[in-house]
Design a protein that fits this description.
This protein is of the alpha+beta class. 41% of the residues lie in helices and 25% in strands. It has 27 helices and 34 strands. Strands 1, 2, 3, 4, 5, 6, 7, 8 and 9 form a 9-stranded mixed β-sheet that branches. Strands 13-16-20-19-18-21 form a 6-stranded antiparallel beta barrel. α24 links the parallel β30 and β31. The termini are far apart. 37% of the residues are buried. Bound molecules: zinc ion (2 copies). One zinc ion binds next to α19.
Length: 900
């Protein structure tokens, strides 16, 4: 059997031998913001076809990673239910950029399929373009080339119209006819035999005829609905679905029965402990897990993490759907890491990013499965209730409003609701669901519109006129400028003077940096002949207009004034230290934790920096130390910092970290720290890392699923922070009367001493107390046949006092107990009466006169009462009079008893 890896390599080598450059697959996450995922081989060459990009080669061959899930929302559900749908797949392609054309493309395709791979020529069919509207010429050129191929059956040449055989990128732009190669796998492969009137044929919709390879000939530029212009440079773009090709070459009944998927499914079988028969019965679940496990591993390797939006949502959906099918097989604990391991083993050589991120992939998948498990527990219960009540009411549909609530409150994936409903034989009211979703969106919009800041009209007018502020502050902190606009309370004014509220000033040029990319805005002074303006913040609310915010401190400021702009240089310098340190930190984190530790947000201020990055678990103290050390190492190496402007593509080629959604073809600013770090960045930086001075990590925390935060200080802030830490240590050392380096030992010894003292105090207290208990018992008095015990234990809390009382009551068996304790000017009282006496005497009554004497009140039950008081001086007296109170209460109650 020809292994899949061999097939892939044969394809690449075949075209390499014919002058093609082997180009690596681009990421599944495309630069193109209109695309969710890279979904075909063409994406990475789109700019060449559009005529806006070039490549240093004219022939290329590649295997491209692709993802298709979004768009028609049934796609994901179809995966696994048949043998040929996938989320992740590979696309083989050979490309000509204005070089060879139809003759070579067709001849090579034929040669590779029939000579190299030995597919029988009489099983192969070719299709060419013939316009059903008669507007575009028939592709006779391609047809003639087909007829000339050795062993090609002339009866196997067919013509199809625009839908099948004409390729267009968009309503306008490059387009052209294409030619497809189909294979007839034989009548036994037909999956629509039972349909009346079905005839097996090319493009006939059954599994007997498979499209193998699509050769696109880009020869026109569409400028309107009916106007096509010939292109000066013609291109070839081909695509062959790898999984399908492998199935054909391995004689497999479907894609999942090839060695691309069987090792994954074998692993699942091992995990489940299934027999072959059981595996065959659960084939859908096996396929879903194999496909989704593979897709998830590739997505994480390309930096996608599970979330509730965009790509992250797709990944979440995929992981959760796989986990759900895993549960059907009895896999309740996380298992996708095991499947991903097989993916890494079998494909890591072709896609090194898998091997590089292996550990991270495992962690990310397991973490998401665990989160899902928690969601499921609550959501599944609710869903079962919904299904049960729908069935009980004889309904066939789950209400959209309820399903939306399930999605909104429990984060329960809607695809899973659909699956579960289908299994219960129910429909879901998706229209109602969408209505709820829209209502929710409107609520969110209303909220955010309320909070958003209105751009002042005059500022908007300025921007509309195309006015921009030139930023001159990369190299200097002083400059001159002219006032273009003054805003007071958001309204344009001609002048502002000292004592006015906050004013906003727009200049034609300024060295003040406006807050952006995490770096805070500059502060400083604007000085004219007539006044002085203090800048407290600088912002860029819209477009390229820089707004200085602050107060006129002296004189007046008028529109049209020329003035000197002076940034607070010392503060800016500290900001720059923190910014350059941030770039070093970013790189050091990736070195210590792995390439996945990419920036997720940052703040660069004069006195601190904050850096959020992707990582799943807290950093160990060793990792924190390693990162900090690495940054300081680079500071001490005194590496020069360079700033260059270059096209985005070049920056990427040179390994720059692109953080935001830069566009293809844009010129970007690249900040390089020697060869150590390279980032796209618009901020202000030092000229040399040594100027950072010192870098210290203050703390490391988590800020959300998969995102960690480092807070750190650089330059003077780092010095001051270190200094403060030292001062704390010195103070502690002096309090302990020891040297700073001996503090830990000294503290350990003190803690030991403290613990042993506590033990002694406890045992002494217990000894003293039990002696006191004995003494109190000896001094018990008898009042009208009731034994009365009183005692004072100073320094005891209520609870300890009660425990003593319990012991006394036990020893006493029958009688009344009143205990008191004085502590910090407060009195605590506890009174107890044994149960046998409760019909004659209540503890809650007995405690009242005692509490009154010490200035307090109390209450409780007949057996136990408690009280507090404010007068410790009268505690002895109060306790002494207890027998008297007992007598009073007994007599009173007895009399009342007689009276009855
Ligand atoms: Zn058929
Ligand atoms: Zn930066």
């Amino acid at each position: 059997m020809r292994k899949a890896a061999e097939v892939r390599e044969t394809f690449l080598r075949f075209f390499e031998e014919r002058g093609h450059v082997r180009v690596p697959s681009m990421s599944l996450v495309p630069q193109d913001p209109t695309l969710l995922f890279t979904n075909s081989g063409m994406v990475q060459f789109k700019d060449v076809f559009l005529g806006v990009g070039t490549r240093p080669y004219k022939r290329a061959v590649d295997v491209q990673k692709c993802m298709r899930v979004a768009g028609k929302h049934n796609d994901l559900e179809d995966v696994g239910r048949d043998g040929y749908h996938h989320t992740f797949f590979e696309m083989l392609g050979n490309w000509s950029f204005g070089d060879y054309y139809k003759r070579e493309a067709i001849a090579w395709a034929w040669e590779l399929l029939t000579q190299v791979w030995g597919l029988p020529p009489d099983r192969l069919w070719a299709t060419c373009f013939e316009d059903e509207h008669g507007e575009i010429p028939r592709d006779d050129e391609a047809a003639e080339i087909w007829l000339a191929q050795p062993g090609f059956d002339p009866n196997h040449l067919l013509f199809f119209g625009r839908k099948e055989n004409f390729w267009e990128m968009a309503d306008v732009g490059p387009c052209g006819p294409d030619s497809e190669i189909h294979i007839d796998r034989g009548p036994e492969f037909c999956d629509r035999r039972s349909e009346p009137g079905h005839v097996c044929r090319v493009n006939g919709g059954c599994a007997r005829f498979l499209e193998l390879w699509n050769l696109v000939f880009i020869q026109y530029n569409r400028t309107g609905p009916t106007t096509l212009e010939p292109l000066p440079a013609k291109h070839v773009d081909t695509g062959m679905g790898f999984e399908r090709l492998v199935a054909v070459l391995q004689g497999a009944p479907d894609n999942y029965s090839t060695d691309l998927f069987t090792p994954l499914m074998d692993r699942v079988q091992e995990l489940c402990g299934h027999s072959d028969a059981e595996r065959a019965r659960e084939v859908v679940a096996y396929r879903v897990i194999a496909d989704h496990g593979r897709a998830a591993a590739f997505l994480v390797a390309d930096g996608v993490l599970p979330s509730n939006e965009g790509r992250g949502y797709v990944l979440r959906m995929i992981v959760r759907r796989a986990a759900r099918f895993g549960r059907k097989l009895g896999l309740v604990r996380p298992f996708l890491a095991e499947v991903a391991d097989v993916v890494v083993r079998s494909m890591g050589e072709v896609y090194p990013e898998l091997t590089q991120h292996r550990k991270f992939i495992r962690q990310a998948l397991t973490a998401e499965e665990e989160r899902f498990s928690r969601t499921l527990e609550s959501g599944m219960l609710r869903l079962e209730e919904l299904v049960a009540s729908a069935k009980a009411a004889g309904r066939t549909t789950l209400p959209g409003e309820e399903v939306f609530r399930l999605y909104d409150t429990y984060g329960f994936p809607r695809e899973m609701t659909q699956d579960a409903a289908r299994e219960a034989g129910l429909e879901v009211d998706w229209e109602g669901f969408e209505r709820e979703m829209e209502r929710q969106r409107r609520r969110a919009r209303a909220k955010s519109a309320f909070a958003s800041v209105q751009v002042p009209k005059s500022l908007q007018a300025l921007i509309d006129r195309g006015v921009r502020t030139e930023f001159t502050g990369y190299r200097t902190v002083v400059g001159t400028g002219r006032v273009l606009l003054l805003l007071k309370g958001g309204v344009g004014v001609e002048e502002a003077s000292a004592g006015d509220e906050k004013i906003e000033v727009v200049l034609d040029r300024t060295p003040f940096y406006a807050e952006a990319g995490g770096q805070v805005g500059d502060t400083g002074w604007l000085v004219s002949r007539l006044g002085r303006f203090e800048v407290v913040d600088t912002q860029r609310p819209l477009g390229d207009v820089i707004v200085h915010q602050g107060f006129v401190r002296e004189g007046i400021l008028r529109v049209g004034d020329r003035l000197r702009a002076q940034v607070d240089g010392a503060r800016r310098r500290e900001v720059m230290r923190h910014h350059t340190a941030t770039h070093l930190l970013h790189k050091a984190l990736r070195e210590v934790l792995g390439e996945h530790a990419r920036q997720a947000g940052s703040l660069v201020a004069p006195d601190r920096l904050r850096f959020d990055f992707v990582h799943l678990q807290p950093l160990s103290p060793e990792q924190v130390a390693a990162v900090e050390e690495r940054v300081n190492e680079k500071i001490l190496e005194a590496i020069p910092v360079h700033v260059e402007f270059m096209p985005f593509e070049e920056a990427l080629r040179r390994g720059a970290m692109a953080l935001f959604e830069e566009k293809y073809g844009e010129v970007v600013r690249v900040v390089s720290i020697g060869d150590y770090s390279r980032e796209l960045c618009g901020g202000t930086h030092l000229r040399n890392t040594s100027e950072v001075g010192l870098f210290r990590i203050v703390q490391e925390t988590g800020v959300g699923a998969g995102v960690r935060r480092v807070e750190a200080v650089a330059g003077w802030a780092a010095y001051r922070w270190t200094r403060a830490q030292t001062e704390v240590l010195l103070r502690v050392a002096s309090q302990l009367r020891t040297a700073p380096e001996d503090v830990p030992v000294r503290v350990d010894r003190l803690l030991d001493q403290l613990r042993s003292l506590e033990r002694q105090v406890r045992s002494l207290q217990e000894g003293v107390a039990s002696a006191d208990v004995e003494r109190a018992l000896e001094q018990a008095q008898e009042v009208a046949g009731v034994r009365v015990v009183t005692a004072r234990f100073d320094g005891l809390e209520q609870e300890a006092l009660r425990a003593l009382g319990d012991r006394l009551r036990e020893r006493l068996r029958s009688g009344a107990v009143v205990l008191g304790s004085a502590q910090d000017g407060r009195v605590t009282l506890v009174a107890m009466v044994t149960r046998d006496l409760c019909d004659r005497l209540h503890a809650s009554e007995l405690i009242q006169p005692v509490a009154e004497l010490v200035g307090g009140r109390g209450g409780g039950r007949p057996e136990l009462a408690q009280a507090g008081g404010k007068d410790p001086h009268r505690l002895d007296e109060a306790l002494r009079r207890v027998p008297e109170f007992v007598r009073m209460l007994l007599e009173g109650r007895d009399r009342a008893g007689f009276g009855r």
